[in-house]
Write a structure and sequence with these properties.
The chain is an alpha/beta fold. It has helices at 3-7, 33-48, 67-74, 91-105, 125-131, 140-146, 154-169, 173-187, 202-207, 235-238, 272-284, 301-311, 319-322, 341-344, 351-362; strands spanning 13-20, 57-58, 81-82, 110-118, 210-212, 215-216, 225-234, 246-254, 293-295, 375-382, 386-393. A hairpin with a 2-residue loop joins β5 (210-212) and β6 (215-216). α2 (33-48) packs across α3 (67-74) and α8 crosses α12 (301-311). The chain is globular, with a radius of gyration of 19 Å.
Length: 394
C-alpha cells in the first residue's frame, strides 16, 4: 500500500470485542490449545454482541491453530478471509494491521484474532527447540551456529542484545529490575494475574537465580496456560454494536535485517519496531507525547527498555534511566503493562496486551485504570526481533 493509502486507514477499523480464559500453572488448563482459543473467542464475540455466524475472517496464531478448525468449531459458515502472520510474538499486534486493511478494503466484515496455548503444562520452549528445529526463529542458522554453542533458548538469544546495551550505555541490573518490579506491582491490582498476591522488592529481584547473564529469573516472562482473543470490524459497523469501540489509529510491522541472525547485524539494536514505529505514528497522526499508556511486549525486562527506545519514547541508550523512579508505574509519566504483562500476569503470546489496552480505553480496568486514558500503544516482539505496533484510541 502507498503511504497515502496507509494514512487513509486511520480510524477505519475498531476493536469491538475482547475475551480471555483463566491463566493457569500448577496442574495446567486441562484443555487443548484449540479449546482454550475457542473459549476466548466465544467470550470476545459475546463481548462484541456478535454471533458466531457474523465472523467472516479469522487470523490464527502461527502453529497453534488453523482458520479452518477454528471456523468449524465455532460454526463460522462464511469464512472468506483468513491468513496467518508469521512473526512469533509480534503476530497478534501485526494481525491488527492486517485486520484493519481487510475491513477497510471490504475483504471482511468481522475479523476474529485468537491466540492461546498450554505454555506451562505443554511442551516448553527448550523442548520444542530441541525436538523441532524447524520452529527456531533463525532456522538453519540458529540450528547450525547457535545451538551447538549453547544458545538453545530465547533467554540466551536475547541476552546478547542486553549485554551489548549494558556495555555500550551502562544499563544496570537495577534498571532491569525496575521493569520487573513495575510489572509485579501492576499485577497486584489484576485479579486475573498469576502473580497477584506475590509482591516483589528490588532485593527479591537481585537475589533471584541467574538464568543467563544478565537475565535473572525475574527478568524472564512467565510460562502459563491460557488464551485471549479480539474482534475487529469497521468503524461504521462498530457504531451499531453495544460496546464502546476502540479505534485503530495506526498500525505497522517490520523485521530486522537479517531477520534470521542477531550477532552479525550492523546495528544489533535495530529491530522491526525501529522500522514500524515511525510508520504507525505517521499513520495515526500523533506522537509519543500524546500517549497515555503503553502495553509493551515484555518477554524479558531488557526488551521493554529496548522497545521504549526504538519506539521513540526515549533516545537509544536512555531506556535504562527512563524506567527508573516510578516513571513506568501507574501514576507515573508513562504507565506500562498495567495488567502485569508477560512478566507478572500471564504469557498468552502478547494477546492480553491488546485486551488490556482495550479495557483501559473503555475505562474498564478497575483499580489499575489510567485516569482519562485516550490514546494507548501496544507492541509485539517475535522471533529474532520482528516488531509490530498499534496505536489505539477511545
Amino acid at each position: 500500500m502507498t503511504a497515502a493509502a496507509r494514512t487513509n486507514l486511520r480510524d477505519r477499523a475498531c476493536i469491538v470485542g475482547v475475551g480471555q480464559t483463566a491463566f493457569t500453572r500448577g496442574d495446567g488448563s486441562g484443555k487443548s490449545a484449540l479449546a482454550l482459543q475457542l473459549e476466548a473467542s466465544v467470550r470476545a464475540l459475546e463481548d462484541a454482541g456478535l454471533r458466531h455466524d457474523d465472523v467472516d475472517a479469522i487470523l490464527p496464531f502461527p502453529n497453534l491453530a488453523t482458520a479452518e478448525e477454528l471456523a468449524a468449531n465455532l460454526g463460522v459458515q462464511n469464512l472468506r478471509f483468513a491468513t496467518t502472520v508469521w512473526m512469533g510474538g509480534a503476530a497478534p499486534v501485526a494481525s491488527l494491521e492486517v485486520a484493519a486493511i481487510a475491513v477497510a478494503a471490504g475483504a471482511a466484515d468481522h475479523v476474529l484474532i485468537p491466540a492461546g496455548w498450554n505454555g506451562y503444562s505443554g511442551r516448553r520452549a527448550r523442548e520444542t527447540i530441541a525436538e523441532q528445529t524447524s520452529s527456531i526463529p533463525g532456522g538453519a542458522i540458529a540450528r547450525d551456529f547457535y545451538l551447538p554453542y549453547g544458545l538453545a533458548a530465547p533467554p540466551q538469544w536475547y541476552s546478547l542484545m542486553a549485554r551489548r546495551h549494558m556495555h555500550e550505555f551502562g544499563t544496570t541490573p537495577a534498571q532491569l529490575g525496575a521493569v520487573a518490579i513495575a510489572m509485579r506491582k501492576h499485577a497486584q491490582m489484576n485479579p486475573a494475574a498469576v502473580m497477584r498476591g506475590k509482591p516483589m522488592t528490588l532485593d527479591d529481584y537481585i537475589k533471584s537465580p541467574m538464568i543467563t547473564a544478565p537475565y535473572r529469573l525475574f527478568d524472564c516472562c512467565l510460562e502459563t496456560d491460557g488464551a485471549a482473543a479480539v474482534v475487529v470490524t469497521s468503524a461504521e459497523r462498530a457504531r451499531d454494536l453495544g460496546k464502546q469501540p476502540v479505534y485503530i489509529m495506526g498500525a505497522a510491522s517490520g523485521r530486522p535485517y537479517p531477520a534470521d541472525e542477531i550477532t552479525n547485524r550492523r546495528d544489533i539494536f535495530k529491530t522491526g519496531l525501529t522500522i514500524a514505529a515511525p510508520e504507525a505514528f505517521a499513520i495515526a497522526g500523533v506522537s509519543t507525547a500524546d500517549v497515555d499508556f503503553a502495553e509493551i511486549y515484555d518477554c524479558f525486562t531488557f526488551e521493554v527498555i529496548q522497545q521504549l527506545e526504538e519506539t521513540g519514547f526515549c533516545a537509544r541508550g536512555e531506556g535504562g534511566a527512563f524506567v527508573e523512579g516510578g516513571r513506568i508505574e501507574l501514576g507515573g509519566e508513562l504507565p506500562l503493562n498495567t495488567h502485569g504483562g508477560l512478566l507478572s500476569e500471564a504469557h498468552v503470546l502478547g494477546m492480553s496486551h491488546i485486551v488490556e489496552a482495550v479495557r483501559q480505553l473503555r475505562g474498564d480496568a478497575g483499580e489499575r485504570q489510567v485516569p482519562d486514558a485516550e490514546i494507548g500503544v501496544v507492541t509485539g516482539w517475535g522471533d529474532f526481533g520482528d516488531g509490530s505496533i498499534a496505536i489505539l484510541r477511545r
